[in-house]
């Protein structure tokens, strides 16, 4: 058996732990393992395919990033190609990918990625590719799994930032708006905001009323609490409005959202007269060493993915459904995107402890 591993989409702490566990588990069965560089670029002649052995994966379990590198613009069904006039068009190179995999004697592909990578995996499976997936996203927005590796690390990074912002906000009687990742789902904002005792949390699932946000800040002032912390997911948007964007996306890239922190800070300052500052946490949430929880989950996923290949669970994704790792069809995962449930106990607790969602 020869398998190949691919990491696609945005990076997440724990990717290397998945790679390490999958490689060691495959080698234990006597299999050969290849690594496809930059998503599927290595199979399309845009990068390389390398051999993965014990020496290559030794000592990488605690490292952030991915030794295989990654890209969010490498969809083989819509691959960007520059034309002689400088324009870029998207072409279908999936047959070329499959042919190259066959030439290399690849029996199965283990793909590690989020919703975009899973959609690609499903289409490849429908074209006959033997493929198994591992869910990966710091946003925790993949369905059918309780959580994804990288999420705990991102939340921990955000909590650390909130803790530090509390001291400077209180010292200066300021309002500080922290923007965290979360284009379509507000899990990072919700979990870090609740754990970090933020005063306002804004998420894409609940369009906010800016006046309600300001009411919360004014009420804290009246109570003698002259500072406030607002945590906003990058995809949060006002009632009747739309998300903030950062300009045009590159070909094949998901839309770029962000900029909400600065806009919110300016609007809050104008309406309340309070001094406001903003901070965009950005890609710090993707970097650094994974937490112990993420290392363990990623390692479990890597081992489970190899078992799924051995059991020929083609077109399926390994998922955490506590206390076990199970396999679910990728088609089921893609049916309904995972979003914050407004009646979840985390939401209910946040409201009960006085946090405003701007609604």
Number of self-contained structural domains: 2
How far apart are the first and last residues' alpha carbons, in Å? 55 Å
Largest sheet: 7 strands, mixed
**Class of the largest domain, according to the CATH hierarchy?**
Alpha Beta
C-alpha Rg (nearest Å): 22 Å
Count the DSSP helices. Answer: 11
The CATH topology annotation of the largest domain reads as Rossmann fold
Low-confidence stretches: none
Q: In which range does the helix fraction lie?
A: 25-40%
Main structural class: alpha/beta
The shape, in one word, is elongated
Q: How much of the residues is beta strand, in percent?
A: 15-25%
By oligomeric state, this entry counts as single chain
Instruction: Write down the overall mean pLDDT.
Output: 94
Going across the major beta sheet, what is the strand order? 3-2-1-6-7-12-13
Written account of the structure:
- With 359 residues, this protein is α/β, with parallel strands linked by helices.
- It has two domains: 2-149 and 290-322, 3-Layer(aba) Sandwich (Rossmann fold); 151-287 and 341-352, Rossmann fold (3-Layer(aba) Sandwich).
- The protein is built from eleven helices and 13 strands.
- A hairpin with a 5-residue loop joins β4 and β5.
- α1 packs parallel to α9 and α5 (151-172) crosses α6 (187-195).
Blueprint of the fold:
Elements: E1 2-7, H1 15-28, E2 32-36, E3 49-51, H2 54-57, E4 79-82, E5 88-91, H3 94-103, E6 108-113, H4 115-126, E7 131-135, H5 151-172, E8 175-180, H6 187-195, E9 200-202, H7 210-222, E10 228-233, H8 260-272, E11 276-280, H9 292-310, E12 316-321, E13 324-329, H10 330-333, H11 345-352
Parallel strand pairs: 1-2, 1-6, 6-7, 7-12, 8-10, 8-11, 9-10
Antiparallel strand pairs: 2-3, 4-5, 12-13
């Amino acid at each position: 058996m020869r398998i190949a591993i691919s990491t696609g989409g945005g990076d997440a702490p724990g990717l290397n732990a998945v790679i390490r566990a999958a490689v060691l588990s495959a080698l234990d069965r006597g299999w050969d393992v290849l690594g496809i560089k930059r998503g599927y670029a290595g199979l399309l002649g845009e990068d390389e395919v390398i051999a993965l052995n014990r020496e290559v994966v030794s000592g990488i379990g605690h490292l952030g990033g991915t030794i295989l590198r990654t890209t969010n613009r490498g969809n083989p069904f819509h691959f960007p190609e520059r034309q002689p006039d400088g324009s870029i068009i998207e072409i279908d190179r999936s047959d070329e990918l499959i042919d190259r995999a066959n030439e290399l004697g690849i029996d199965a592909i283990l793909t590690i990625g989020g919703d975009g990578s899973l959609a690609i995996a499903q289409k490849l499976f429908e074209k006959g590719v033997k493929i198994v997936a591992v869910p990966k996203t710091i946003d925790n927005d993949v369905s059918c799994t309780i959580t994804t590796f990288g999420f705990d690390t991102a939340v921990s990074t955000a909590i650390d930032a909130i803790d530090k912002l509390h001291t400077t906000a209180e010292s200066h009687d300021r309002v500080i708006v922290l923007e965290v990742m979360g284009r379509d789902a507000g899990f990072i904002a919700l979990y870090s905001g609740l754990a970090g005792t933020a005063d306002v949390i804004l998420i894409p699932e609940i369009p906010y009323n800016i006046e309600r946000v300001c009411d919360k800040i004014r009420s804290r002032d009246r109570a003698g609490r002259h500072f406030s912390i607002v945590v906003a997911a990058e995809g949060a948007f006002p009632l009747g409005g739309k998300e903030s964007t950062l300009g045009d996306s590159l070909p094949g890239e998901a839309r770029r959202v962000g900029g909400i922190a600065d806009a919110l800070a300016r609007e809050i300052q104008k309406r309340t007269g309070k001094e406001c500052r903003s901070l965009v946490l950005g890609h710090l949430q993707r970097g650094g060493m994974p937490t112990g929880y993420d290392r363990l989950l990623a390692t479990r996923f890597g081992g489970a993915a190899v078992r799924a290949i051995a059991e020929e669970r083609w077109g399926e994704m390994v998922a955490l459904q506590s206390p076990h790792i199970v396999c679910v069809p990728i088609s089921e995962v893609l049916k309904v995107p995972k979003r914050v449930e407004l009646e979840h106990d985390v939401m209910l607790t946040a409201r009960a402890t006085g946090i405003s969602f701007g609604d």
